[in-house]
Input
Amino acid sequence: MIHMEISLSILNTSDKPIYRQLYEQLAFQIVTGKLSGGTPLPPIRALANSLGISVISIKRAWEELERDGFIVTMVGRGCFAADLGDEERGSRRRELALGELRPSLASLRQLGLTKAELIELISENYDE
Amino acid sequence: MIHMEISLSILNTSDKPIYRQLYEQLAFQIVTGKLSGGTPLPPIRALANSLGISVISIKRAWEELERDGFIVTMVGRGCFAADLGDEERGSRRRELALGELRPSLASLRQLGLTKAELIELISENYDE
DNA sequence: ATATTGTGTATAACCAATATGCACAATCCT
DNA sequence: AGGATTGTGCATATTGGTTATACACAATAT
Output
């Protein structure tokens, strides 16, 4: 079985905590199919070492990923990308997108943007 | 001169810091015209007391609001909503909207959403 | 058996946000 | 002029989330 490359990185400039950055990168790669089901994640100690961070941050990211069904972990064996069907992947991807969008939507309504205005704003700024 | 009502509130359940909540509420009310130029803000001590928070949080919000041109402060007199022209209000409103949207846009592209998909997602979830 | 991998716990350091209190400066009001 | 009001500035402290380090334990692999 051949598996995809796992690419993970940490931005110290990000406002998001490390565990959150890892969660999103992995979840995104899974629901977009960049990471196929069953792909083994690097051992947390090795990853902590190569990223120059603590095991704690990775552990927390992995915990939440498992809680949300994105990965499965087996003691002594390792952690693996969950095997989501195409349908499931699609709905989870939509879920994540909505999760990103919802908080902004609330603010944008507060700013009095109509649906039409909002769509226009996005059309003009999607790229970049 | 008659001025608008200023409504400010703090949500302890919010993930955003107090000073940020205040900043946004005030900036939003100003660019949407709910707060007309020259309207006096409550004295920071009185406001701190009535909201049950510290002066520090208010001070910081006010500082950033002044830095960004939303209010003007005069020692001994008080703080007042800045007097923005209609045009200026419009462009600042657009600025704030983009500021809310931009971080989400980056994530949404990471999720592989096309412009069309994104617009559809918004159309379906603008209300609620 | 020994190594590898995840789990759990304890301890500590760091930092942003927040709170409290007091002194100072500028302005307002009488 | 004098007291009240308002913003400013500083010092100190607390709290909570995030992260780091280290060690012992459990399950699996080779």
